[in-house]
Design brief:
Layout (H helix, E strand, L loop, with lengths): L2 E4 L4 E6 L2 E6 L1 H7 L2 E5 L6 E2 L4 E7 L3 E5 L4 E6 L2 H4 L3 H4 L8 E5 L11 H11 L1
Antiparallel strand pairs: 1-2, 2-3, 3-9, 4-6, 5-8, 6-7, 8-9
Length: 125
């Protein structure tokens, strides 16, 4: 069973052992509007925590998705190349971006739980 966590940058992480699935939250996709393009890392890429992992473009803005953890990309959601709107339709499900195998030790307590994330979103409003 995965453990869902969030970053202050509006990314979600589904943690399952040493594998983390990453995407953006429903709040983030709502702020961006209609997503028209997603550029994902390649399988086998090594990502460092806090560095750019993906690029997302919407009708309103373009931005980068940072990797919340360090590790190696083991899967990417290739369906987003042809259907980037999936991120709008199901951001915390079928709209996931990539899966990364964590390098070394990992402490999920540094991320927000759902309650803390909702408080963050409310504070930003």
């Amino acid at each position: 069973m995965s453990d869902l966590k969030f970053t202050p940058d509006h990314e979600w992480l589904a943690i399952d052992g040493d594998v983390v699935t990453v995407g953006i939250t429903d709040h983030a996709q709502g702020q961006l509007g209609d997503i028209v393009f997603v550029e994902l890392p390649a399988e086998g890429d090594t990502l460092s925590e806090g560095n750019e992992a993906a690029v997302i473009e919407s009708v309103k803005a373009a931005g980068e998705i940072k990797s919340p953890v360090s590790g190696t990309v083991i899967a990417v959601n290739e369906a987003l190349a042809d259907a980037p709107e999936t991120v709008n339709q199901d951001p915390q499900g079928a709209g996931w971006f990539f899966r990364i195998k964590i390098d070394g030790d990992f402490d999920s307590s540094e991320f927000l739980d759902e309650y803390a994330y909702q408080s963050l979103v409310e504070d930003e409003a």
